[in-house]
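Box 3.1 A note on notation
Throughout this textbook, protein chains are presented in two layers. The first layer is the amino acid sequence; the second is a token string describing backbone geometry. Keep the layers aligned when reading.
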Amino acid sequence: MSLSRRSFISLLAVGMLMPMAQFASAANCGVSAGGGPGYSVQKLITPSGITLTLPVKWGNLGKQMVQYGVIDKNKFESLYAARGGLNRREANLLYGDHNGNLKINRQNSRLILNLLWGLGFGNKNQVLNSLSSPRFGGDPSRFASTGGWTLSNGRMMNHFDKYNLVKLTPQQQKLVERVARNIYRPCCNNPTALPDCNHGMAMLGLLELMASQNVTEQNMYKTAWQVVSYWFPNTYSAINTYFTKHGLDVLPQTALSAKYLSATGYRNVLAGIRGRSQRSGSTGGGCGV
């Protein structure tokens, strides 16, 4: 299915203007990796220009997505040809069998976003049932995270929520759902548990991958906050400025919550920095491929 520019903008609007879903909050927890429980976001500031190694191995997931048609290799390569092309390491994420840990930096952050978007989109997971809710018309194709996924082979919804790309135990599934309820994004007021835009769907894919590889809950929050620095650099910088200005020393799961990282939370952060009500403006991330 191809989308006109007007239709695609409408899809983005659906994703970004959906009312905030009400979810219960998970219990507060610390951060273990890199500094033990209680490791605060002020100690996790990602310096500009570094490459961050994520605690998950990619393996042959890209190759599987190409084989299933979640990713059409010609569409994907054409998209990146216009952006300078894929280097050997990047192409291997799409076609290789034995990829190690994912690595993200300023240069490849959009590529990692799109790969994880495809994973969250195509992987079968009950979290995606939220997009079929009668509350939103019962049509999961109307969201920016679904109708905006234009890189599949054939009709994109033929690949939505279909393949067992990442297998989870019941305990791992509960972990994904719990963490997903608590991670928001500044382009809208919804948590990852309602993945209605590309960033939400990509974060879901990352959470699934981390849970399947036994990353701890604390380290999942830590990694998610670090990834935010690449996907929403302006937001990440502003929130850290806010914490510094107000002398706050918070944990990653708090920084990722609706209080700070949702669209409403981010507006309040900007008001707290500048001393008056603010429109959120650019977050540093876009909602298309």
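The chain is about 40% helix and 5% strand. Residues 52-232 form one domain.
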